[in-house]
Amino acid sequence: MVKLILLGLLAGAFFSSTFVLNELMSSVGGHWFWSASLRYVFMLLLVSLIIIAQHGIGRIKQLSALFAQNPIFWCVTGGIGFGLFYAGICYAADHVSGWVVAATFMFTVVSSLFILMAFGQRFEKKIFFYAFLIFTGVVLVNLSEGLNADIHDQAPLFEILLYGALPALIAAFSYPLGNQLVWQASSNAKSSAAFNPDMTTEELLDSTANTNNVADSRVTRYLTAKIPSFETLLLQSSFNKIWLMTLGSLPFWLILATVIRPPLPAASQVFNTFLVALLAGVVATGLFLYAREEAKTSSEVAGVDATQASEVIFALVGGMVLLNNPMPSALGLLGVVIIILGLILFAKNN
Asked: Quick one: signal sequence residues (predicted)?
């Protein structure tokens, strides 16, 4: 168990590089669009190399064929789960400290509850108390940042919330939504009825009425059944899903580039974005998934999940050491403690 916790903490340290490096790039004038979009260009390259090393070039051809089966689905899930998610993270980094973005993004644990409920899952009431704790901590962290900025005649609290907290909260909803859509598409494939595109609405409702992950709501069952299914084992691999969603996110970045028309990035920003893709996108993800796979009991899985709360601490320390950020106020530190407590309780009971 100690080994798994250490691996989880190491993954949290690498994950936190996202928030520190994004703040660094913002502080030297790098446009947030390049910090966001270039990460996924590099991610596509790096993950492709990993897949080829593991399974050969033939696996990339298989994934390309799978993408071509329903490109709209992959563009929607990639655009939401990766595009909108990381655009929100990088935009927020332009307006608040990296540790504040990290703390606010921890709200994704709460947003995941609402998304899973929309897909029919139910939870014990105590889970919502833990979610409330996390929400309270997020509010305190952002109030601390806003009040501190106001004292130093920087952006007022309203702007901190609008340009910092709101984009990070949008990211906190986008990431689990995109991933849940992909999971649901894979889950639908387990039902042979899901493969018949000519089913009537009533047949769709009946075919999903008895599944474990879909609620009794007719609307929920109908929407779930309308998500496409893919009759393949390829979606059992996390790296395959990352590849498909990353490729699907590219149209989102192209459209955003056309709308924003950002100035070209400096070489330092390109390099730092590559580091984010490598450290957070590949190393951190690999360590975290490995630790989770090595866990043999639910308590060990919960322990690994809880280590992700360390991202806030690593981002806070990293910002202070590398960017000379000031120590947060007592209100901000209290918010961090409450967030971490809520995450630990949440993981322990799941």
From this structure: none
* CA atoms of 324 and 110, how far apart (whole Å): 31
Q: Is residue 311 part of a domain?
A: no
323 occurs within a structural domain: no
**Residue 56 resides in a domain:** yes
Q: Count how many Cα atoms sit within 13 Å of the Cα of residue 134 in the half-sphere of its side chain.
A: 30
CA separation for the pair 296, 290 (Å, rounded):
12
- Two tokens, residue 259: 């709308």
**Do 209 and 221 contact (CB within 8 A), yes or no?**
yes
Residues 27-51: tens digit of each pLDDT: 888 899 999 999 999 999 999 999 9
Does 310 reside within a domain? no
Where would I find the H helices in the chain? 2-27, 32-55, 57-69, 71-78, 85-93, 98-105, 108-118, 125-151, 157-160, 166-188, 201-207, 218-226, 238-260, 267-276, 285-294, 298-306, 310-322, 330-348
